[in-house]
Amino acid sequence: MCVLYxxxxxxVINLGHVIIPIGSYNTSSPDGKELFLTGISxxxxxxxIPVSTCSEDCPLGYRRVMKKGIHRCCFECVQCPxxxxxxETGSCHKCPEDEWPNDNNKCAPKPVExxxxxxxxxxxxxxxxxxxxxxxxxxxxxxxxxxRETPVVKANNQNLSFILLVSIMLSFLCVFLFLGRPGPxxxxxxxxxxxxxxxxxVSAILAKTIxxxxxxxxxxxxxxWRKYIGVxxxxxxxxxxxxxxxxxxxxxLLTACPFPETNTDLYxxxxxxxxxxxxxxxxxxxxxxxxxxxxVSFFVAFLARNLPDSFNEAxxxxxxxxxxxxxxxAFIPAYMSVMGKNTVLVEIFAIISSSxxxxxxxxxxxxxxxxxxxxxxxxxxxxxETKTCQ
Length: 390
Description:
Layout: E1 4-13, E2 16-26, E3 35-37, E4 62-66, E5 75-79, E6 84-86, E7 92-94, E8 99-101, E9 107-109, E10 112-113, H1 122-146, H2 151-154, H3 158-173, H4 184-218, H5 232-255, E11 259-263, E12 271-276, H6 280-303, H7 313-337, H8 341-371, H9 379-389
Parallel strand pairs: 10-12
Antiparallel strand pairs: 1-2, 2-3, 4-5, 6-7, 8-9, 11-12
Helix pairs in contact: 1-3, 1-8, 3-4, 3-8, 4-5, 4-6, 5-6, 6-7, 7-8
């Protein structure tokens, strides 16, 4: 049925009542065009245009919630859930996975977080520290080469000292694999490189400790340890222990190679670029084997700490392994309790501090004797003290 309504505006002008036709409403008109207004200005009471709702529009970031039992023009404003923005209709919708609402109620790209040289002051600071420690270790290495014929360097196999110093230098350099945006190459070699380097270093320390014990036993008359004194045993020990770690690393890389990934679940408002280790079991085995070598070295050095050695080699090794083990024991709970780039920082700290502990406990006292107290760097001092201890 077609119905036509005429619309009038009733008002008061100059104390007189007026009725002004302003349009019509025709039900037979097309959808959306049923209402027709003539455009003549309407006269409202108090010259205020009424609103069609009893609630004000919701601000940005809020959505409408209808009040129960009240007309739909009356509503409450509730803040949008985390990660959502509001649109013109007063409803909320979720931002894409790689975006997050900004202050203007728009979805903006999430910030990407990693140890950046440009945006994070920690990365250049760590770089400078690593370079300085590498330079310091290189200087000690040069001192040992220059004074390689002196007793303090020749005592307890100078080749092992050179291997250990080179390993410490490489450990400071491998820190750079943990800095910057993770890539396929850095993720592939960051864990395996430091694992192999430290295995070589700890193997050299273990060989040095065994040589201290064998050298003392060989001084006794008729000792069968004399035939084992030489370069073959310590070199073979270093090669064997290091080869096992290399084998673990190769199997890890071939079966479950680490790779870079973007983690959008760790933090809701930013993206973490990190390395996926590929296999947490392989990483645990790598750390476990390195820890086993350190514990064995510490145990052997602790047993040999009271042997008569004028340069206190076993005591220095004991202290260095105590520092090394303490750092990596503390590393495990710290590594498990932090997230994001902080896990990388914890591992960097463990690498630098454990390498510095070995360098300081084993080589700094010898450098002191070589450079400051050359009067102690003589074979006569070594022979005299050995006889006194016997």
